[in-house]
Design goal:
Layout lengths: L3 H11 L1 H5 L2 E7 L2 E7 L13 H17 L4 E11 L8 E11 L3 E10 L5 E13 L1
Antiparallel strand pairs: 1-2, 2-4, 3-6, 4-5, 5-6
Length: 134
Amino acid sequence: MSDYTAYIKSVNETNPFLRHNHMQAVSVSEDHAVVQAQMTAELRNSMGGVHAGLMFSMAEIAAGILVRSNGSKQVTLDTTFRYLRNSVTDGIIEAEAVYIKRGRTITMCRAYVREQGSNKNLAEGEFNFCCVGE
């Protein structure tokens, strides 16, 4: 898919899970995707930090957006995910996904979750996808 602006708009408008969780796709290119969430009370755990489920969801969504950006239909096969630290920021959390391997059937991505503008990972994971159609 060459028009990433239209793709980002489509993702943001047609994914109710993104809207419900205050997330949005903000950047997609041939080899990179970024999803952001403005922190709100609903996105925090009982200790006031970023909810682990939010970090996982953002990373998986960023990776999924990346692998589907060529117009293919992909499903998540499996994942390895690590929580490294938490954050109590009131700012923006972002997940960035990049390719490890692009295959015809199996594609592997790595995703990182950080506070916007930070180079310290809050969480990171690897996501494997299977192409189920074009």
